[in-house]
Amino acid sequence: MIHLENVAIRAGGFSLNEISFQVPKGDYAVLMGRTGRGKTTILESICGLRRVTAGTIRIDGTDVTDWLPGDRQIGYVPQDLALFPTLSVAEHLAFALRLRKRPGAEIDNRISELAEVLGITALLDRSVDALSGGESQRVALGRALSFRPSVLLLDEPLSALDESTRTEMHELLKRVKQTTGVTTLHVTHSNEEAEALADHRFELNDGVLSRV
User: Do 172 and 118 form a contact (C-beta atoms < 8 A)?
Assistant: First the structure.
């Protein structure tokens, strides 16, 4: 579950105030709104990359407002994917697990499991520089899911993809929801994505977040 209550965020001259909404555990929510209105700022605040100046952020009922990002058990796929050019696909899937010092056998099993779910088993030894846009999105999603987060945040994950690849990714994201049960908040401009994926739809307009 994601629960924001009366959250205020300031970034330079930009601010959001009294942001409140809730995504029930295991559900898929889409946050829409025009560019520059603060959607990414909200995601960054939930995962701890940006501090809030007021209000409360709860994950699965626990107040994480002042927690460090790594303690929040949140998987995050930023708009630019932030893939590491020096790492292979398999190394990306292992990255968060190695940081958490998980046993080698557990890491290997998780890589195989994720690769099968995401359809990238044949790509595991490949450099990310050799991937298509859709393949890169799958790798970034796998890295975010690798440590079994309770919450997944996606920032415009399909915006750079062509129409056929977007349709494939819609099906993949539905499958991820079904197989993992992860609570998801997905930022997009696309009504098509919202209609295909959302259990709940929110819109941010002129600093006001409302349910659609």
Answer: yes
User: What backbone torsions phi and psi does residue 9 show, to the nearest 5 degrees?
Assistant: -135, 135
CA-to-CA dists, residue 34 to 84, 156, 186, 188, angstroms: 29, 12, 14, 9
Question: Which residue shows structure tokens 């959001």?
Answer: 16
pLDDT > 90: percent of the chain: 85
User: Which pTM does this prediction carry?
Assistant: 0.94
**Cα separation of 188 and 78, whole Å?**
12
Find tokens 């942001």 and name the residue: 19
Q: Are 142 and 94 in contact (CB under 8 A)?
A: no
State both tokens at 16: 């959001």
**Nearest CA to 38 among 63, 5, 15, 70?**
15
Give pLDDT, residue 206.
87
Q: In what order do the strands lie in the sheet containing 14-23?
A: 14-23, 2-11, 54-59, 62-63
Predicted local confidence at residue 38, as pLDDT: 92
| The amino acid at 187 | V
Mean pLDDT of 159-186: 90
Helix (H/G/I), strand (E/B), else coil: 52: coil
pLDDT interval class at 104 (50, 70, 90): very high
N-term to C-term CA, the chain: 19
pLDDT tens sequence across 31-43: 998 888 899 999 9
What does the block give as tokens for 123? Answer: 């790509």
